[in-house]
Amino acid sequence: MLSDFIWKHNGCWDKILSLSFGPHINFFFSALESLNHQITEERAKLEKGLQEMGKYAFTMEHRIFRLHYNSGSLKHEGGCNLFFSDNYTSKGWLYFQGSVYLGSTTEQTWQESRQYCQKRGADLTIISSVQEQTFVATSFTERRWIGLTASQSREWIWVDGSQLNTRFTQFWDSGEPNNKHNDEFCVETNYNGDTWNDEGCYEKRLCICQKRMTF
Length: 215
Fold this sequence. Notes:
Helix content is about 40%, strand content about 15%. By secondary structure, the chain is of the alpha+beta class. It has 2 domains: about 1-70, no CATH class; about 80-210, Mannose-Binding Protein A, subunit A (Mannose-Binding Protein A, Chain A, Roll), CATH 3.10.100.10. The longest helix is centred in the N-terminal third of the chain and has 47 residues, at about 25-70. It holds the Pfam family Lectin_C. This is C-type lectin domain-containing protein.
């Protein structure tokens, strides 16, 4: 039996295949290599397709939320704007999903901007959802510092010490982050607020402060 032959010859597959396929052995190996190549290509196409589907879904979620927000249906969270009107919104803060946000009016370095926020009991904003990114982009124009910086090893860390969720790398502008001058360790929003850019922390920008509310 073939199984006995395999066992007695300690897995000498080359001899077995030679006996089985004779002069066609090279064709057999060539066919296997071709099949393996095809499988590898198909797997790469599937992985790329899944990535594109994820990116498309992410973009659609962003656009749908923007439409709802612009229509006004998400601007008032169960009257919370009214609840905080005396303490914050009357002073220029905007309420959204448990936090209030303030845009500065003076351009400063990233560190100076953070100090500006901290003096007001807040910190530079941490963006943790598609909805929050849309809110920020809709509410604050011009280039503004947010609470994201890079370590020396180029790991992106928020001001609360948490790492940037890979899902939100979709918000980087095309070609960013590029560390163009080898000193771009801080992150700003671009003019329309929709995308992010890494920039030198010494540059002067407006900023977005965020204070999480406790009930």
